[in-house]
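Subject: HAD hydrolase-like protein structure
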Amino acid sequence: MGAEQLVVGFDLDLTLIDTVPGFAATLTALGEELGVDLAVEQAISKLGPPLDHMLAPHLPAEQVQPAIDRFRALYPDLAVVSTPLLAGAAEAVAEVRRHRGRVVVVTGKYAPNARLHVDHLGIDLDHLEGEVWGVGKADVLVREGVSIYVGDHVHDVEGALAAGATSVSVLTGGCTREELVAAGTHVVLDDLRDFPAWLEEHLLTTRLAALEADLRGRGSVMVAFSGGADSAFLLAAAVRALGPDRVVAATGYSHSLPESERDPGRDFAESLGVPLLTPRTHEMEREGYRANAGDRCFFCKAELLDVLTPLAAEQGVAHVATGTNADDAVAGFRPGIRAAAERGAIAPLRDAGLTKAQVREASRRWGLPTWDKPAAACLSSRVAYGVEVTPHRLARVERAEAAVRALLSGAGFAPRDLRVRDVDDLGRVEVDGALVAGPLAGSSPLAAEVLAVVREAGFPRAELDPRGFRSGSMNEALSARPA
């Protein structure tokens, strides 16, 4: 289960592209050929309606379709190359892509000519549908799963509303704000330059509402609480939706959980009025976990859920929830997510579509101290795949990281991200790139001190990674293995 993919639809003329000059030139040429005044200025004042609506007042009925055919034939040479994108159009499409969304263009324009514009301007879209107008657009919007439709005309509003989509209107066409509001649009923007900020806020608001509705429907939850930004936010959201009496936090205590994470986690849960349970987990007893192949996280999450699920039942709690977010769900290599799903754990953040950035932003707005907390994966993530995970290795990693952090802090540098990777007895230090390029560059005295404290922590050898900290860097070795 997961959130539905974002699909945003756009009208074309006067929403994404400025077709007025090209349309006027083509209509003028057609009128000259036919010897008819086609009222060009009136026609371009509110582009959008189909050509037959524009031509019918000026031509006998039997001449309308031949005139449409001739207009379409003239159009490519007179209108395509000269038509620009409107301000903000490229950025609006890029914002949809940034949210991993699909882009659909639904227009009343003759489809082959619409395609010429799209191809010439390099508009990045997934589907184009032409020759649909007004409420007729609704069928296409529904078929393509469009949840937001952006247009400039009152008839674009009609299509969006008929499809049950959020109607976003821009004032780059001929319709006024008052006309668009009267038609029922949900949002009016001056132009597409305002769209990225609106979309960001809209998605955060709707996804938070979806999260609250999901949690309310659960009745009670136990949050698998690591103390990180995601599970902390989920815990706070659960308390908001259900109240502290129907929420429990549970942190598995084992060799892989740093001591430095334990007290802050307890303090956070207590600040929400939520009891924190700290059952012992024994992932080290699982052969697959100790072997530390690429699927180590599967065995870790399996152990955690095998402990928490019966504990939740004992507490009378209906569900165990993990802090998996929407980014995690598409990140590729996540065996722990599979283990949790197989054991019936729910992932409300993922299901609401909340990304890591949105979790942090919502946490900031809620005043949670974890909003900017750096990622803090378990200690076993520091051990190179294929090297056996043991309590000894985890303890020296924890000692080394604590020593390096204390050393750098004492020298006036507060590292945000720091890992000491155990690469078969080599302690490889990954730290913020700015530190690697600055005070730790080359053979600086401070760099030598860092390597010395890593060796003192129990590593026979030590080195600084010149590439700096990279989340999931151990996975690089997996991707480099031959298939």
